[in-house]
Amino acid sequence: CGQSGATIMCSVPECDRWFHLPCAKEGGCVNLYVTPFSSFCPEHRPEQEVEVTPEPDTICSICLEPVEDRMTFTTLVCPMCIRAWFHRDCIQGQAMSAGLLCLKCPLCRDSETFLVDLFLLGIRIPFRLPTWEDNDAFAELGVRHGQCNARDCLYPGGREEAEEEGPWQLLLCSSCAAEGTHRRCSGLRNSTDRWECDTC
Question: Which residue from 35, 128, 28 is spatially nearest to 88, judged by alpha carbons?
Answer without folding.
Answer: 28
